[in-house]
Each structure stands twice: as C-alpha cells, then as structure tokens.
Amino acid sequence: MANLELQVPMKPEMVFRLASVTKQFTAVAIMMLVEQGKLSLHDDLTKFFPDYPATGRKITVENLLTHTSGIKDYINKLWPERMSENLRPQQLIDLFKNDSLEFEPGAKEEYANANYVLLGAIIEKLSGQDYAEFIEHQIFKPLGMTHSSYCRTQPLMPNRVSGYLKRDNVYINAAYFSMTQLFAAGAICSSVDDLALWDAAISANKLLKPGSWDQVFRPYKLSTGVTESYAYGWVITKFLERPMASHAGGIPGFRAYVMRIPGDRLYIALLSNDETADTQPEYVAKRIAAIALGQPLPEPKIIKLDPAILESYVGPILRRQRQFYYCPAR
User: Fold this and answer.
1) Is there a contact between 319 and 310 (Cβ–Cβ < 8 Å)?
2) Fewest CB atoms within 10 A around its CB: which of 110, 123, 201, 314?
3) Kindly report the CA angle at 155 between 151 and 157, in degrees rounded to 5?
4) pLDDT averaged over the chain?
5) Using one digit for the tens of pLDDT, what is the confidence trace for 214-239?
6) Contact 124, 131 (CB under 8 A)
7) Is 220 left (phi over 0), alpha (psi -120 to 50) or beta?
8) What's the rounded Cα separation, in Å, for the pair 181 and 26?
9) Cα–Cα dist 271/190, whole Å
C-alpha cells in the first residue's frame, strides 16, 4: 500500500525516498564537473573549503567519493533528538568539521554520510546551482526521469508514498525528519521505473564518457595496497560469481536496494515503505536476480534461539537504534 490511512494501493510510478542510493547520483554529478574541467579527483578538500581544519592532511575528492577520508559521520549528533530541524549544507559541515579524523586519508574505508555532504557542497560551489537544481536539471531532466527529484517536504509531489514501521505488530507512521539533514548523501526521491531509466543511461554511457563511467565502478585502492569494495556511490562485489554493483538505503519509513550485473544486462531496483519489514529489499532483490540468472537461491532454514542468546549479541548502538526505530542512511 502506498498509503494505509487512505487505502491507496501501490503502483510502479509511486515515488519513494531513496536514502543512500542518492550517493550514486551525487558521484555522477562530481564526474560531470570533472569532465567539464572544473575539478580534479585529486583536488584537496581545502581548495574548496580553505578554512576546513584538515590538520595538514590531504583529503581528496576521491577520498570523499570512496569513504576513505577518515571524516567522522554526523547523523548520530542529530537523530533522534534533532530529526525535525531544517539545516543548510554549511550547518551540516559545522557538525563534523572540527572532529578528529578516524584514520589517515586513503588508509582505510569507513562509510560516512559526511563525505557526500561535502561533495554536495562542492557541486554547489562549482556549478553555481543548488545541489537539488543541478541534479534535477543536469541528470533527471535529460534522462526523462520525471518521477525523480530532491525530496522536499512541503511542495506537493504526485504519487508520493507514505513511510511506515511496525511497533508491537501494528503499523504506525514513520517519525518525521527533515530531508535537508541528508542533503547529497540521501535526499533524493524516485520510482522504480525512473531507476530503470537510470540504469539504461549508465549502460548507454549517457551523461559521462565511457572512461568516466569505468572509473565510477572502479573500487578504491588504499595506501596499504588493499582494494576496498566501495567505488563512487556503488559497492562492487560479486553475486553468483558475477561482478555486481549495488547499494542499499535506509531512513525512517523507507528501505531501498539497487543492484546491477552488467555482464548479464540485469538490473533490479526494489523500494519499500515498510522500514521494519521482516523481509528487506536486499533479500528479495538477490532472490529475484538469482531466478533471472537461472540459479535460484535456496531458502534458509529457520532456527529458533533463546531470546537471551540473541540479546547477548546486541550492543549499545543497536539498542539505541531499536529504541527509536531508526538507522543511519546507508
């Protein structure tokens, strides 16, 4: 159902919040600016933010794209107490810029939405447009993605679905939060059909040159020589021995998962407005993919464990997330 209170059934053109699936659009926007000669992937962060306290360390644009900057995330400073506040990009940056780095840039990969907030701010500085305007006019409009946009709360959005979660086995509306808090890290809305257009554009080398698209899907090699799985807005792994690019997203009321296996011309986008569903999008998407590839996955056997055993594995962060029914956008 797209809306439980009004009993509106779901249709393919319905619009969902993508959460961190947004990052692949932000990454392509950066690559478009690279091709225009407005920046280099090796540019230092301080080139765009001269007062950014990098303490003498060079954090490159590529470090931001691949989550190898060492910059700490900021979401837990806002959620759940400040979820409803509208914040500008600079206000988001101010939340984390003075935090010490988690590690030397390029030495490790650690997922942090802060990286993509900075990329969104760079897009605005170099393009002279708001991030939302750039994405909508430079990517969505040329590709005919008419059901995609930056998620704004107040303007009417045709086919917008409502987000839910279950508490005590009863559906309730997801907690309100301001999409401005995710900005270029997770604030795009779209539909499954529009995401199919997005995949077709990637396959046809639209928006970017073939070499740039290759770079988008190339995992980052750390300074230690280890190649990590994260590329530019995509996680690069294997599925049934085939190279696969994927990304998940999760915010209050919504879950998303997209995966593409280019060698088999297979793309799956699965969007959900049930945050706490027993079966999550990634689980379903991979089983659909396996069927499409002629290698169905066996269903896992259900086993029962004493609740006390399960509780022993739950750490303080997970307890807090469970208490407030949210999770970081990923």
Assistant:
1) no
2) 314
3) 65
4) 93
5) 999 999 999 999 999 999 999 999 99
6) yes
7) beta
8) 15
9) 9
39 is written with which tokens? 């920046």
* Beta-carbon contacts of residue 138 (< 8 Å; ≥ 6 apart): 29, 32, 127
**Model confidence, pTM:** 0.91
Question: What pLDDT does 314 receive?
Answer: 77
Token pair 């999008």 is at which residue? 281
Amino acid identity for residue 245 in this structure: A
CA dist 191 and 63 (Å) reads 30
User: Rounded to an integer, what distance in angstroms lies between the CA atom of residue 142 and that of residue 122?
Assistant: 22
Tell whether the model's pLDDT for residue 288 goes beyond 70: yes
Joined tokens for residue 295: 């290698």
Question: Sorting pLDDT into bands at 50, 70 and 90, what band is 321?
Answer: very low
Domains of the chain as residue ranges with CATH: 16-324 (3.40.710.10)
Span 251-280, pLDDT tens digits: 999 999 999 999 999 999 999 999 999 899
